Amino acid sequence: MKKVSIDPITRLEGHGKIEIFVDDNGEVANVYFQIPELRGFERFCVGRPVEELARITPRICGVCPEAHHMAAAKAIDACYGAEPTRTGKMLREILYNAFSAADHTTHFFVLAAPDFVVGPMADPAERNILGLIAKVGPEAGGKVIQMRAWSHELIEIIGGRSVHPVSTVPGGVSKPLSKEEAERVKEIADYQVEFAQFAIEVFNQVVLGNSEYVDLIMSDMYAHKTYYMGMVDENNKVNFYDGDIRVVDPDGKEFVKFAPEDYLQHLTERVEPYSYLVYPYLTGVGWKGFVDGKDSGVYRAAPLARLNAADGMSTPLAQAEYERYFETLGGKPVHATLATHWARLVELLYAAERTQELANDPDVTSPDVHSMPTGITGEGVGVVEAPRGTLYHHYKTDENGIVTACNLIVGTTNNNAAISMSLKKAAQGLIQPGGEISEGLLNEVEMAFRAYDPCFGCATHTLFGEMPLEVAVREQSTGEVLNTVKRFV
Amino acid sequence: MSANEFEPRIIGFLCRWCSYNGADLAGTSRMKYPPNLIPIKTNCSGRVEATHVMKAFADGADGVLISGCHPGDCHYINGNWRTAGRYPMLKKLLEQLNIEPGRLRLEWVSAAEGDKWARVVTEFVEEIRELGPLDWKDEVHAEYTDHDAGELKEAVTA
Amino acid sequence: MSKPKFAMYWAAACGGCEIAVLQIKEKILEVGENFDIVFWPVATDFKYKDVEALADGEILLTLFNGAVRNSENEYMAHLLRQKSQVLVAFGACAAQGGIPGLANVSNAAEIKELVYIDNPSVLNPDRVFPQERFEVPEGELDLPHLYDTVRALDQVEDVDYYIPGCPPEGPQIWAVLETIIGVLKNGGDLPPKGTVLGAGTKSCCDECSRVKEEKKITGFKKPWEVPWDPEKCLLEQGIICMGPVTRDGCGGRCTSVGMPCRGCYGPPPGVTDQGAKMLSTLAAIIDADSPEKIAEIAATVPDPLGTFYRFGLAKSMLRRAKV
Amino acid sequence: MAESKNGEPRIGVFICDCGTNIAGKVDVPAVVEFAGSLPHVAVAQEYKYMCSDPGQELIQKAIKEEKLDRIVVAACSPTMHEPTFRKAVQAAGLNQFLFQMANIREHDSWVTEDPVEATEKAKRIIDAAVYRVVYQQPLEAIEVPVNSDVLVVGGGIAGIEASLKLADAGHKVHLVERDPSIGGHMAQFDKTFPTLDCSACILTPKMSAAGKHPNIELHTYSEVVEVDGYVGNFKVKVNKKARYVDMDKCTGCGLCTEQCVVAKVPNEFNEGLDKRRAAYIPFPQAVPLRATIDPEKCLQLTRGKCKQTCVEACGPGAIDFEQKDEQTDLEVGAIIIATGFDLFEGERIERYGYGRLTDVISSLEFERISNASGPTGGEILCKSGEKPRSVAILHCVGSRDENYNEYCSRVCCMYSLKFAHLIKEHLPETEVYQCYIDMRCFGKGYEEFYKRLMNEGVVFVRGRAAEVTAASAKQADEEGRLVVTVEDTLLGVVRHIPVDMVVLSAALEAQPDAKQVAQLFGFGCSSAGFYIERHPKLEPVSTVTDGIFIAGCCQGPKDIPDTVAQAGAAAAGALALVDNRTVKIEPTISYIDPEKCSGCHICVGLCPHNAIVYNAELDAAEVIQAACKGCGVCVAACGSSVPVQYGFTDDQIFAEIEGALAEVSAPERS
Q1: Do A59 and C98 touch (CB under 8 A)?
Q2: In CA terms, which of A31, A174, D395, D425 is 20 to 30 Å from D485?
Q3: ipTM
Q4: For the domain with range B7-157, which CATH number is right: 3.40.1130, 3.40.50, 1.10.8, 2.30.30?
């Protein structure tokens, strides 16, 4: 038995590790996905004044702090019995959608696109954003950088800081939006919509225009028939900030729809002795191990899942794209993991449109940015759709609003089981007996994982070139290296 | 002192005008009290910072006493009002750090209260004896194994 | 002649520091031009032995972010120190322990019990806990050892410079890199060891845009309990703001949106224990007509530990809670 | 550990036996050996009496020969001999602030039972001092110029006496008095104990001397409203209340006071026993002898409508209803506070019936009744106008009583005896009862006076009076009389003494606004309201605020001789200051580096002595060196630890803590 380590591939709370065991026939026996770190937020959030959790929990992930900031804000509203004012809610939602758009942008262009634009098996030196720029023209790079920069500017205007925003308070936000700021926000929102359309254009050209890629996306190697979870509004349309949680089964039929505060009745987390990260599954179905299908409680979250779990998008352009997406990929639900990239772009368009919609509301500059707490209720659940999956914050407090208990189910955690399964399937599909383990092959294994975008971290690398990876196939007993494949910048 | 009985180590911060002279008076009056407290003089108890208290505990003190003029008698008018404000916050902080708040004590001792000084120290030493050693040095350094790269490599890259 | 080698490593951190580095935008490419990035877990291979293979001091500059929470972090701290000429504690976690350092109110066992047993969404009747070594049918898997005490980088290794902030602000980061790149290109001296880079030498109040007057407070308020006023000092309104005990450099962003400073830039020069200092400062500005009343008001401070030591518990004099 | 400027510090530790005071308990040789083993310690020596000349020479010799740059003396309390050793160190050419004292006598040998423990403690105390001294820096005293004028607040005997002394010494004195005339309580007294000379006769000359003195400027009917600045350089704002009489035109003829139509104003000077007009001169010997128009009573001023008979009456046309308050700014080098006392209000003790029962009177009322210029022309009469057949004098009314004032008022016993004597003198037939707890006759000639009274047939009842009641009608002969119920603790019986008059010997209390005044001038006052001297024994007339002195009853109840003596002492204290061109200030004060200060204003509002100002130009706080008293409050409060308190830096305190907790040869814990 040999062990192949791909280490790291991500960072959620810390780093990630893939262990691939190859048996003596050279076939993949099993794959383990490990999260080696635990920071214990659930413990040290206890004892803090609950409103401070909006400024503590974002440090769970500096990639999507906005998501934690908002989930916390909503849980805190509940703990304080403070219903957000119209403007307060709008400002939060503008910030949040602008963030989602920016996050999706970065992931697609810097991480995903290069695989398709220049090709998964292409020379690593070209398979990066620079290579992408070479293909789709120099203005693309500029657009991406501007999109990121402007979006973070917007986050800073409302949130105070572009990383780890601070401005939510019970019932809204701390600061009204000035007329000048509002103008700038509009400008940025308009650009976001424009950019989202450009992004979809790129996708049409380089991916859908190429049947090879479409086949790759649809290939069974990258597919899992699982349940799908996502937040929807009263019309079952995708919503990132507010709504109920809807779960559809592998056939796309609604399995359950529940209010965020009832999440405990529908979700259970299990512990595996080899990872510090827990594995959630649907309580209603139960845990059957790392397998897909109707009988397994394994579900998926994030863009692919959200589109499957909803009946459409609430904004016109996104709705159109949503329809085209399912037509092209053969109807709902779409099980192809790699289709997540397209789904992400549909969401990017929605987020941008939503930001624009809210930015143009006259109430956006109203001074009435927060309500007053009506009294401490002692408990609150706050849920938002983080780019990487449904994010649950659940707090309990004493009569003074001091936290006595804190439970968190973080975006990527939803996909923890699915990621392990996808990796195993890809590895088994790719690593053949006696076969040379090539760099491109590793990249394809990585693609299965990358589609989940478990963390932004992986993305940044491509600015400098390919993410170098080394796979060592070694005699496990002795640890002697039999065969290594390396790639460097 | 018997070699195996716990002898509390206590730091006392005394203001120069009232408490230090009060302690002097206890001396000139030949009152007897336990030797566990080492006095440190500041002009005003208002000069005593939380940092000084933390430093004392971190360096191995089992108890800390802050002593100043009675309210109204402060030779800096209201310098000791600051101390009065710090005290409850410090207590709360120690509690949150799971350190018995009883290890910190604030007393107003005037230059005329030598007897009170002797009583306070005697009581406090007994209270700390009850609480037992804090041994903070050991507490914080307990895990400081200062592994070198070699040792850890074993743990990490097996 | 090959470019000087650059490394960036994260330990117990959230990733915000990497995002912050990205905030320097296109300048990031300049870093790429001037440095040979040998090691950046988000950018390059993570294998320890590639670093082990380097000669001592072969890396010119290492930006180390994140606190030291487990054996893996500590190992890397020692290893990178050995291989780097300049080791920088980057960000609040590396410099102060940061928010992960708040875990020092507890210990590993307690945290595991909570996360893997007590959490309401967890079902774990067999009390399964992650193991540092675990036998699966196919072989053995390992996980790093989780320490009881979270430490800042300089509590584990010798540190050359500090770049504080949660995260450090983009322009500040660039200013530092620019300086170093400048020294590399045109020679000159690097700042003295131990210098805090990418930050000021005064308190956050210095850059906070709000107007400062004499501070006398009669009680503690929450930001939403006072009417919105872009001018008035938050502390003067009774909102506990760490500005006075926090090093400047962030530009006073939080207070500009009416939210109090929480001290992510760490203490200003001369302050040894940020939290204790804040306690001394806050207590001093309580105003009442008798010490008894002052004490009453002081006793109502909601969460001294979590507020005063939000980012600095690991670097405080006591370092952790007693367990 | 830090290094002193010139490389490695070289510390000398000198341990005093203090005869057997220390050596009798502490194993000094062992401590010497321990001290010698400490880092940076170059010399450790023992000597029998370190404070003696040979002891000091020993230190000086070692400084020179061993090139010592830091000195620790382990001996008695620094309050005892710190100045001695500082001088010695300075004389040997070493800055006196490179010296630290370890108190192993008052804080160790005298208070520790067990010699082994005492020895261990001595080691720790010395260890702390040695660690600390390494961080000490040379400091130089600061010199500031001194204004030679003096402000005296309060025009009673203390204020007058101090003013005269200073004025005679050639200094300009501003004497501020809140009432229209100086004189204070003493002007109300009839005779003074024990010599029985007439109060007026001895006070009046001093009053007029003060009024006429070229160096004394009287500010009567005035109050200090603002005090700023610091030793040698005080800035004071005085508010002169409108008198509605032109001081320059008024001749004090008193015609206006006769013509004034408002006649029913209780006369304060006579304790309200008779009436005065709205236009009035407080008493015949008033200084300045000028009329005042009572703004609360004058019809013109209250209702704006009056015949203005006073105006008609006044030849020089001194009356001016348009007069306003005037504010004057004074600059002085020293201040003497002599604001006196207030009499305990009899009403507060229900059971004595003051204010309820006629002929229960206060001591001050008695003073006026017995005074020839008083309401009864000096005849001791009941309200009815009849001579009292018997009088009871109740001692300790409101003093030596936990419900009111714990302290002894010191003068009540004596003036009670004086009253008894005066009664006997005027009405030999009248019985006089003294109900006392203890007779306290401590002063010169007091005990003799007491003896004399016992021979004058005064009845002394040892016991605090329980109550005073109106006699019941059936006790016919007692009709209209009062009955004093008191337990005679000597006879062990409860007595009911029928009397016609009861005099309450009430306590002397602090002025009602004593606390505000203390705040205004920046020094402490006790819970009772009496001002706190810098040192109860060695500096009884100084306050913690340099350049401000106290005298008389504002510091505590006292008799006239003590008051006058204290006034002289205060004057001398002020003189010692204002006679110099400059004054030296303790350098253990705060300094704020404007380069480091963020201008957050926290310290500005905090300084108890208003020694910190905000400099807008530098956007930084600034310490007025001369005004800083070195409390260190700003140091502790500053979020950036920018203020440095010389002599008490964090480094020094931290080092002291480390030293105190460093392992000495203490028994290991199990």
Answers
A1: yes
A2: D425
A3: 0.91
A4: 3.40.50
